[in-house]
Amino acid sequence: MKVYRRYLAREVSGAILLVLLAFLALFAFFDLLGEIKSVGEGGYQLHHAFAFVLLRAPGRAYELVPIAVLIGTLYALSALARHSELTVLRVSGLSTVSLLGGLFQVAGWFAVATFLIGEFVAPPAEKAAYQMRLKERGRMVGQDLRSGLWVKDEQSFINVRVVLPDTSLRGIRIYEFDEQAQLRSITEATEGKYVVPDSWQLTHVVQTVLDGERAEVRQLPELLWRSALSPDILSVLMVSPDRMSLRHLSTYTKHLADNHQKTNRYDIAFWKKVIYPLAAFVMVALALPFGGAHYRAERVGLKIFSGVMVGILFYMLNGLFSNLGAINSWSPLLSAVTPSALFLFAAATMIWWVDKR
To answer: Would you say the pTM of this structure is higher than 0.85?
Structure first.
């Protein structure tokens, strides 16, 4: 049995990796086409576009692994069925449960790889890609917004005109209120840099302190400003929630919760990051009833096309339930787990039906 498991793992893993590489090459080509139109803006050149596409590749791999697992497993099982190798294994006493166990062993490795890529490789690579593009194009986060960015921190409201790619700030205004919601002070600064934990070094500061009907204006060359706002929180501006690490999602969600702001969108993204690697198990279970049956060679293409459609449907349902959960304030865990649960139920039903026949 160990021999058949090794053989099955080699065939299925090879097919999955081949499909994943093909998808990565295809998406890299389309990403490059999208970046070429920006070549020439500021110092952004063709080699920067290539670097941007390469840095985004881990994020693309993270998105594509479930689809690649489905199509690769379909192809490998179809090839084994076409050459009657699955038939020989079945006649030798291999049950559907044992075959599924062998496929789950392969899926486990891809689930671990998906988690590691999504947690430790894709987020920093994605952040570096957008920082490089912003820097070379001479653009800055928030410069296209009419009033800049707004962040709430306890009793203060912070307005930042521009966030640079290195997460330093330009054009800062801090409106501080007391517990009765009365404006206590307004602090304006030209620039701010994160120097120590929970502290920013503000330069060219003009501070207006309100005391009843009196107002005192102070001009300071520098001011150390303590705030829960951090570069990790600002990095959210450059990386979408689905591409953030669990640590950053947890940090930002806590910041929003501490300031009594809605966290549903980021809670859903957090649970999606937890559940998403397990999609590899769902995909191999879906592939088994399709790929395990014996078909003529001309039907293999139809099965692969069906696998692509099922993979796209899974990707679309993931996004649909995330958006519906955020709009309707559904349970974040339920919104994240529902697509995988539906597909797993469909896979179990099809396996039962095929096995019964």
So the answer is: no
